[in-house]
């Protein structure tokens, strides 16, 4: 005797969040059943493995049918096929678009192309995230990227509106899109210590300060691209390191402000010229796409590593950069 | 020319991509009614076209209005080749023809294609202008209201019950062997859908005409069925109860209490007899008197002889069985007490002129039901022959007529003049090359009815009626025997009623009706199922029919024994909602009986079950028996606890004892039935023995007892029943969910014995139940109401079990422990987002109320408020419902519920579906019309669609979606009395093909929550005034 057909359909679509997570994580039905059995649902209500399997299959089928709708979440609310209460809809969407921090670190800044998708099995092996889940996450990145690419207006808001995501998740996606668009290199060994959230913070800063949208909300361009004009203007900073007088003047202003405020003062004073040179050089090169990609690696090599070797604290860094910027504003050239 | 139908095509959305090159679609729409077709312009290159067409007007006869559906076809324009069809929408405009129902159909409908399923949605507006022809109700039956509900609809009162109406129409099936046809399957399936839609329209109109002839204005308990007789044709038949209903004005609307759900009618008896008032019920506690331990199963079965007529139709044997009180052709009423005779005379006249005193109702207004005799049922095996002349479906008519006559005579034998809770069904076995075999079944409950409801002008006469009422107090009256105790049609143990001590009652009562609201129940009820599987030799034609009819009585007998055993095991003494289904397959017969067992306080306590061995010589054997006995006794004790059955201990009372001698002699007097067969008299009473004795001298009986004990106990926190209300539990929250589950099993071993098959079948049913419990584990404590299974044997070695149920959570003052448990489980499933901002939530409710419902409800409330708002502002009237469905962002901006906005237009109206005739905790304020839909879906890429399960899963989901859309378009928010009457699934895995037919029906309604009543009147009145104004009563 074997079950040929087994379906269970409710007028209001029933979903088990636990099973949904298994499905999202790319478990096969068999694996999910195994995990659920170990979880002790069976003892809870005296069900047999058969019952559990049938339930899991039902849920998986429902999720598969819903997946098409999840690709354009706005449809989920006004489709007629599944009657799902709004808060469940929100849960479905949010979970579907949630991604693994480990996985995203692997593809951050890479081109969201077929080639990258082909390499996902390596990523899966490396991160321990199932291939199926990797593909879903990758496709989510790509889908969001494609939709917002065409849109005008603020990036985060666009993502939030089109994919009905929470603010947090929308910001994370904005970072992913931003990185993918500018192809920032994040995979180098020296950058490994940085988490996705670190990069997401940087992306947030870059988006709100360095893009076209950042300067003028009315501009009919999106804020995925760094503003060319701004990058061009950055070249003028070179004067800070090429003009000896200016360099000294800048240094003395910074040092005056910093004196007595930090333990690392001596190192700061000693390294000022090197550090300033490093920063300005990075800024001045950003008109080259290639150098944009290396932005983070350069930053780490030329600036962060020297500071770290001098045992600066985070507070030191903040202090230094604040005064570095403020002092520059006082210089005559920049008035 | 009495009507003008107007349709407007507004827009489409989510259309499929029809042009691969552009990834877009050039869509246009054809609107067809009868032979007239209109077209919209092509809306080029869009998946969300805005046609905004003019009003297409069809001037038609009202006869056509009733028969024909409005056909809307969405196509993709193609300059070079033929236009491709995207899909269709059929709209039944019948609800618009009754002035009290909906006034406009407006909303988003899923565009359906038999191959691709739902492909986008279309927004349509439909209206009907009926010309004010004084004679219009004579020409057709427009205006007759139809209800699937088997009780008097909630917002009506019954003035008169006219009686049984039936009709059937026959046609040739446009396609029988779908795979082997030359024309494309799609074309033939579409033809089939259209034809059935037409046929059911015609059927409804014809029934309506009969109702008008009888002087009624409504059909209640309308049951329409399809018989897909394969090559012999397609039969659409319907039965119902004709009534005259009066709409209740809001002022007099009865305050429906949520717990006694059947009491929605005002007491139609103007005298309002004291004994009718529910308050008295509570005062009359059952008296503790005699307790009998003797038990006897009052069942008697007859099989009339096989009538083999080889003329044109082969008809085999009508084995009949009557439970709890039946004799075939037994002499009745000659020695009846004067009161009964009077009653009989009184009602006889009212029912006499009727051919069939049969009622499809299962729930009755108080006082309607006087006495209940027992279940009467008839089965008949027929060989199907091609229907030669579809316009004269005489054969089929004659078959059913014969069966109804039989039912009627059984009822008479029970001393009853009417049959209530009546239903008919068929089971057809298809073969490719031979004539098909079909079992026609009918069953009902023999009853005595109060004549007050039958005759015109009798409503206000109190005098004689009072005497009947006095004779049988309402809370126990219906269990009193209607037959004469000295000349009983079957052997039964009679005792004086444990409630009133004045009238005799049987020891066990089986019925097909719902538990009457006035009945007093001890403890809680539960679902009882008897399952049986019998092998049958493969055969064709007459041989097959004969062997089936030979098996039927045995199956009935065994099902009955099982039911009786299980009932005793649960210490209960009455069954309600009994439904026995026997399905025929190529090499087996399946029998499934479901009912809800209860302990009626007025009936004597059931005795235990005693096991006896015939050869008690062996010591170990004795031991074996005593362990078995112990197990049974333990189970009974456990069940008593479980169902909370603690009847007052009674002392044996002399007065209560029956008159055994007379009784025995009465059996001798009983006239033998017309049968000449040796099987003719099956005495199901198991002899007259003290207590219920099971003899385990053969393996069969051992098997029986084993199965009795292996029925898995229902998990804690769950209650189940197959009736509308759960006996013994009265506090309900709003119902939550409706589920349908379909399973098909393949038997791997074809050479199974009866016992092996039985075990498998029982396991299947048990497993399905277990699955339900498992899935709903997070909802406990909850009750599965209307839990009904349908079995079929679609192919050799395949068994299909289909169940649908409705879940309700009882709202009770649970102990603290339970409450904790509940909250825990809610957290488990993450549904703890109870919206506390719901202004009307009762303070006691939230702990049991589920977030999902509260959410949905608040959505609905918001919509109501929105609508009320717009109407008050003076915006246009009937747009309200389209507004709800159109993608305007209004709904969202006003949302109180969530902080997150969903920028995708107004949410889709939540439509609840339930097989019950009501929604617990709510009040139905308006019936919008009947929904009766038939869909066919097929696929030629079965594997790609996720195999058979994937295919059927999405099809059922699609059917639900289409039903919801139609309800919403009528302006409703729920479908009550929902049923899926047909679900025929066929597959051909080798060709990667499958096909499925589904028929669903129900009543579209508007409901409001009990607690929100104050908030409603402004809306409803404004809605009313804004509509036709014809209906100012809601």
In short:
Chain A is an all-alpha fold. Helices cover 69% and strands 3% of the residues of chain A.
Kindly describe this structure.
The complex is a heterodimer of chains A (335) and B (1034). Chain A is mostly helical and 335 residues long. Helix content of chain A is 69%, strand content 3%. Chain A contains 21 helices and one strand. In chain A, helix 12 (167-182) packs across helix 13 (196-210). Chain A is elongated, with a radius of gyration of 26 Å. With 1034 residues, chain B is an alpha+beta fold. Among the domains of chain B are: 1-133, Immunoglobulin-like, CATH 2.60.40; 908-1011, Hypothetical protein apc22750. Chain B (Translation Initiation Factor IF3, 2-Layer Sandwich), CATH 3.30.110.70. In chain B, strands 14, 15, 16, 17, 18, 19 and 27 form a seven-stranded antiparallel sheet that branches. In chain B, strand 18 (418-429) and strand 19 form a beta hairpin. In chain B, helix 15 (851-872) crosses helix 19 (1017-1026). Chain B is globular. The relative contact order of chain B is 0.10. At the A-B interface, strand 1, helix 4, helix 5 and helix 6 of A face strand 31, helix 13, helix 15, strand 34 and helix 18 of B.
Number of helices of chain A: 21
Task: Please give the domain count of chain A.
Answer: 3
User: Biggest sheet of chain B: strands, sense, closure?
Assistant: 7 strands, antiparallel
Question: How far is the N terminus from the C terminus of chain A?
Answer: 87 Å
Shape of chain A: elongated
Beta percentage of chain B is 25-35%
**Helical segment tally of chain B?**
19
Average of pLDDT of chain B? 68
Q: What's the average pLDDT of chain A? A: 84
* Major sheet details of chain A: none
Largest interface: A-B, 52 and 71 residues
Keyword list:
A: 335 residues, mainly alpha, 21 helices, B: 1034 residues, alpha+beta, Immunoglobulin-like, Translation Initiation Factor IF3, seven-stranded antiparallel sheet, 19 helices, disordered C terminus, FIBP (chain A)
